[in-house]
Amino acid sequence: MTEELAERRPIHTWLTDMDGVLVHEEDAIPGAADFIHALKESGLGYLLLTNNSIFTPRDLRARLLGSGIDVPEDRIWTSALATARFLAEQRPGGTAYVVGESGLITAMHDEGFVMTDREPDYVVLGETRTYSFEQITKAIRLIDAGARFIATNPDPSGPSRQGLMPATGSVAALISTATNRTPYFVGKPNPLMMRSALNKLEAHSETTVMVGDRMDTDIIAGLEAGLRTVLVSTGSTRPDRVADFPYRPTLVVDSVADLVTVVKERAE
Predict the structure, then answer these.
(1) Which residue out of 19, 121, 213, 218 is catalytically annotated?
(2) Active site residue 17
(3) What are the chain's domains?
(4) Can you give the pLDDT at residue 1?
(5) Active-site residue 19, yes or no?
(6) How far apart are CA 154 and CA 152, in angstroms?
(7) CA distance 16 to 253
């Protein structure tokens, strides 16, 4: 096992991003299925984290299974779930106008929120493949009237088979420009997302490793939450760009395939 990751501390829990780490769109990254299988066999705690708020954990499980990666539904934690949990703690039984899809709407309902466009406590912006001008205009007017502005994540763009697509961060910037109100982003790189995942697993930051493909979300979120971090080279941040950042991951590897042995060693 690599000395950089060991650091004289045991590893009891693994957190890992999805896109760019386990899959590219619908295609599994080589070694991803073996990595997840090793985690399941190890008995160690693990959770998949994603800023994608479009899908429910059940949807994501089905999509991963279609790629040959078998992850139980309760091992998937999304920015939609983290946002809904955060808001339920802030204002139990509150109201919200939601711009998003089933992943976010279901999470908000499950936490006891009422969806409304009549004087809501919050406007909650998530990701959708079909942002409408009408919805954005409604959000702007509600925020201007006093609703608090929450967004699931700050990602400005996301991948698709046709190329980049505008994501939550871009639409949030549009609304911010119109209202002069900045949203509170719950998802990565906010360490709140990491802490909510740790709480779900009843895990401790000192014995947890975060695996991700983006220095500006996954790695910095892990660092700020006190976790050791692993950057894989199969996603957004190329290894030759790591030096451009004022912080660094604990370890850089080619892919999650390089971590299978590490997981097995820690389980022994």
Answers:
(1) 19
(2) yes
(3) 3-51+188-267 (3.40.50.1000), 92-185 (3.40.50.1000)
(4) 45
(5) yes
(6) 7
(7) 14
